[in-house]
Predict the structure.
Amino acid sequence: MNSQAQIAVVDELAPPGPFREFWNYFCGNRGALIGFGVIVVVLLAALFANFLTPHSPYEQYRDYILTPPAWQDGGLWRFPLGTDEVGRDVLTRLIYGGRLSLFIGMMVVTLSLMLGTLIGLVSGYARGITDTLIMRAMDIIMALPSLLLALAIVTILGPGLINASIAIAVTYLPHYVRITRASVIGETSKDYVIASKVSGAGVFRLIFITILPNCMAPLIVQASLGFSNAILDAAALGFIGLGAQPPSPEWGSMLANALEFIQRAWWVVTFPGLMILVTVLAFNLMGDGLRDALDPKMKL
Amino acid sequence: MVIPTFIGVTLLTFSLIRLIPGDPVELMAGERGVDPVRHAELLAQMGLDKPLLVQYWNYLTGIFQGDLGTSIVTREPVIREFFTLFPATLELSLCAIIIAVAIGLPAGIIAAVRRGKLTDYTVMGLSLTGYSMPIFWWGLLLILLFSVGLGWTPVSGRISAMFWVDEVTGFMVIDAFLSGEPGALTSALSHLILPSIVLATIPLAVIARMTRSSMLEVLREDYVQVARAKGLSMPLVVCIHALRNALIPVITVIGLQVGVLMAGAILTETIFSWPGVGKWMLDSIYRRDYPSVQGGILLIACLVIIVNLTVDILYGVVNPRIRHNR
């Protein structure tokens, strides 16, 4: 019994595990927690959209065109945030729009993270001419304003949600490449990598198993911030008419459709933008929190 | 360093536009279609029938002679179209960056000095909101409030149609002032204010955040502590001792905002019907006006490259430590 008590005491004194330590830091940051909470709500709403709302995002209630929000005169509780120019329920479309925005974010981040990490690893490990060529290519991408490059790529691929995601992913590639390359170069000369090399590890083992895990922290931070940029850019493309196409309830394209009604129906303009702002803000708050928790060096 | 990037950009603009499905002749012909013989003739006229490598070579030599091709829609040289519209974008961007620096710098400094206080949280919260702002929506909200609701500012354009202002500098505000017509300057300014605020939003947020973090770093330095210990007041130490060093990274960040401004200009100009290069680029994309899109991207990229180079050089001027290292 005595020994058990001792063990318990030792456990309490033991340093917290890496996840625990991260969680403690993260929870200390109120903004990050709020951001995380908002994201969870948007995510759950997007996942369970079918159960949350009785309407379909495409169903047009022709008798209820441009109904104001419920609390205004003429509003109906059937349509809490009102209806749009063809009588679709705004709230329903916003909830379903969350699916699209999160999907885009996920797709852009996955694409650019995977490709960028791969290219960065190659560039940082190979050095020499490969490195120079890759970095020059990245400089070119960086020289173009991201929206402009995305516009150009979407023009080639044709408008649409998937193409917009690909275009945005390309514009954010250089960030991941640069981060990975820098950490790879920093890590390659360290003793543990040399030790691994000396003991006969192959190139792939060295790159993916020895070096990569030690470059992850800045990448995770960049990825979470990349999420917000992706959502913002996708909405901008949707707004311009080169992203998601009209009937789909994407927040940016909802705004574009609502433009004509800006004077008559403030709600069709206000709510989609508000959703974009809140979601992007939430991701930025969480990204800041992640940075502080994962990477104290980058702490501002 | 600059030249390979430039060549790369030309390669990119060249190939980007060739990859678009459909060729310009078909586009110009539209629904009507075009007789195959005439089609080939027109292609040959535009030099689009030659091998790609030759087309690229012609393109490259053209660039160095200031020839970026002719717009398919207006038949004007692209470079002339760009530079007729460019002053409008420049005016808007300059005004935006002035707003961003004039508000962002002091806000960042105040937040750093009052670290952990309510002011700090307010400034940081606002700047993160600004940073997360979909500016096309922000523009609409401002129009809704100030133009539609209160009727304070016009909705679109650069100056009221009542005024005919001779173009001297291309900057509407200055031209309006020079014209001496009563009310012209006010009209130009009232057209400029909302788009500038919209375009300034993201750079402002970035500058405020950067200034704060850079200032916090400097305030921790020994020499600042010494200055404080000597009994100098906080505002004096901040303005005289700390600011100069804190500004160094901020200058880089301001330089980096040129790209952000150009991207923002596309959206802002579209919302406010501001006749600048951003709106022109977007219109060209809609019209599939290849040479214009190509030329526009190239010129904007060059602009960004040149500004970044200038910032690098300036960096050495403001930060002597870097010069000594070389």
